[in-house]
Amino acid sequence: MIKRPFYLNCLRETFTRAPIAALLGPRQCGKTTLARMLMEFHKATYFDLESVPDQRRLENPELVLGDLEGLVVLDEIQLNPKLFSVLRVLVDRPENKADFLILGNASPDIIKNVSETLAGRVEFLVLSGFDLTEIGMDKWEDLWLRGGFPRSFLAASVSDSQAWREGFIQTFLERDIPQLGINIPAAAMRRFWTMLAHYHGQTWNASEISRSMGLSDKTVRSYLDILTGTYMIRQLQPWHTNLGKRQVKSPKVYFRDSGLLHSLLEITDSHNLLGHPKAGASWEGFVIEQVLQIVLPNQAYFWATHNGAEIDLLFTKDSKNYGIEVKFNEAPKITKSMHTSLSELRLEHLWVIYPGKEAYPAHKQITVMPISQITQLPYARH
């Protein structure tokens, strides 16, 4: 088992500030395992809302939960959103002696009313699959190919990993989406998801995709929002400034897990990946996701103008702008676009991340950095 001390510490700190912690993230990313790790250090009670016996235990939730002390874990909370109002009542009682950890597979935007009902009483923590700080920087190639879902990454072979991911996709479409009250045929959503794999790393174009699927712009937009709200897709928003240039204003679309992307593109091993037309886009999305998980900026963007200047990732810390450019080659070149980004966005520094082995300065404000050294980025966790 791979330990996840950073997230354990985050949960512990959350309970010093709020009576309810919401641990959110995609199914099978390790939320239940993390909760059980935390339960080892507390008097704890666990409820699985997919379990029929636990569902029966919670038929009168205010009575059952109100008598508990210590840590109370409610897994798969999205299956019973009525519990949110019960939790609000319980934690507001002066005699309450419990902290509540709720686990869910969808964002607050998808789990209706959670933010409003529990406002001021809950803190959210999003858990993704494994990242490089957890599995080791030297294993980035395996993580890129297989993705970060624990059972995919830890599978005994590449074929076992591929089989697990295919099962995950099928279960997600046929069970998880309907459980959220979303009535979309699994075949239609899979077709959209597969089409989105071919647009990975590109600017969102609803009209183009809707024409290809024979659907309205509004419908494909709703499909995208569902996959975003269930942590399958990241919409990276554009950075807007008052520059005197026409800037791209639509989001870029990325798969949050490279393994699922490769499954939908029918990429089965490293040889297929390196020769695939989407290899560069896959690498870009993988690096961006790793940077976001390790640096944890409050906000992140991309920037692009219609005359070609662009930067893959822009984040702000302590009122300073930092840039990330991702290159899938062994000898990245410093481009005019990078210099434009430095001056136009007033970047403190720009890092060019590539799959090589050596870091070196390319300019006083530009450093070429291998992915194995991204914990050296400012504010990175180790």
Give keywords.
Arc Repressor Mutant, subunit A, alpha/beta, single chain, 382 residues, 5-stranded parallel β-sheet, 9-stranded mixed β-sheet, Rossmann fold, 14 strands, 2 domains
Total beta strands: 14
How far apart the termini lie comes to 19 Å
Largest sheet: 9 strands, mixed
How many domains is the backbone divided into? Answer: 2
Mean pLDDT level: 93
The CATH architecture designation of the largest domain is Orthogonal Bundle
**How do the strands of the widest beta sheet line up side by side?**
6-8-7-9-10-11-12-14-13
Main structural class: alpha/beta
| CATH C-level category of the largest domain | Mainly Alpha
CATH homologous superfamily descriptor of the largest domain: Winged helix-like DNA-binding domain superfamily/Winged helix DNA-binding domain
Report low-confidence residues grouped into runs of 5 or more. none
Shape: globular
Q: Could you explain the architecture of this structure?
A:
There is one protein chain. The radius of gyration is 22 Å and the shape is globular. 38% of the residues are buried. Strand 13 (360-363) and strand 14 (366-370) form a beta hairpin. With 382 residues, the chain is of the alpha/beta class. The protein starts with a helix and ends in a 12-residue tail after the last strand. It folds into two domains: 5-126, 3-Layer(aba) Sandwich (Rossmann fold); 132-376, Arc Repressor Mutant, subunit A, CATH 1.10.10. The strands form two sheets. A nine-stranded mixed sheet has the order 6-8-7-9-10-11-12-14-13, sandwiched between helices. A five-stranded parallel sheet has the order 2-3-4-1-5, with helices on one face. Helix 8 packs across helix 14 (258-264), helix 10 (158-179) crosses helix 11 (186-198) and helix 10 crosses helix 14. The protein has helices spanning 5-14, 31-39, 52-57, 61-66, 83-91, 114-117, 132-135, 140-146, 150-153, 158-179, 186-198, 206-213, 217-229, 258-264, 270-274, 279-295, 336-344, and strands spanning 20-24, 44-48, 69-75, 97-104, 122-126, 202-203, 233-238, 252-255, 300-304, 310-317, 320-326, 347-354, 360-363, 366-370. The mean pLDDT is 93. 40% of the residues lie in helices and 21% in strands. It is built from 17 helices and 14 strands.
